[in-house]
Design brief:
Helices cover about 30% and strands about 25% of the residues. It contains five helices and eight strands; from the N terminus they run αββββαβαβαββα. It has an eight-stranded mixed sheet. The longest helix is centred in the middle third of the chain and has 16 residues. The termini are far apart. The N terminus is likely disordered.
Length: about 170
């Protein structure tokens, strides 16, 4: 299953007409997506609904995805810059083991929740076909922006807009 997802993820990244250009956060026009509850590495559950009232960056990732290795530190810096704002990051990992993730975290340090989608159910429900994929939700839980590919999240043109871009 994992090997198939790697191949599909790489294949879709080669099809630019189907995905947004790298580094381009676009208004989301797709269907509403279901809420989820996933455990973090320590086994604590995180319900998406627990984050109402905050702007939430939901990022789908995998340790084997080279763009994500570059993207994750910028997400941590964005979180630090917005420490006094109602902002959260939820990074949903696709069916990897805790060991794989712990090895990855020895190289990349973050303190936002890394959630385990052990069976890939959330990835399927949210129709994720490329890694990384990100969504920005407004404080009411509506998806406002999507990105298929990586982004330097703490670049001034992006972080200065958070969370104002998602206030109702």
């Amino acid at each position: 299953m994992r090997r198939m997802l790697v191949v599909l993820g790489c294949l879709f990244m080669l099809l630019p007409p189907l995905v947004h250009a790298k580094g381009e956060l676009k208004p989301y026009t797709g269907p509403g997506l279901p809420p989820f509850t996933l455990a973090d590495l320590e086994g604590r559950p995180h319900r998406l609904s627990d984050y109402r009232g905050q702007v939430v960056l939901v990022n789908f990732w995998a340790t084997w995805c080279p763009p994500y290795v570059e993207e994750m530190p910028s997400m941590q810096r964005l979180k630090e810059r917005l420490a006094d704002e109602p902002f959260a990051i939820l990074a949903v990992n696709m069916a990897e083991t805790e060991g794989d993730i712990q090895t990855f975290l020895q190289k990349v340090k973050v303190d936002f929740p890394l959630l385990m989608d052990r069976e890939g159910d959330v990835v399927k429900a949210w129709r994720i076909f490329a890694f990384p994929t990100s969504f920005v939700l407004d404080p009411d839980g509506r998806i406002r922006y999507a990105l298929y590919g990586a982004l330097e999240w703490d670049a001034p043109r992006w972080w200065s807009a958070f969370p104002a871009c998602c206030r109702s």
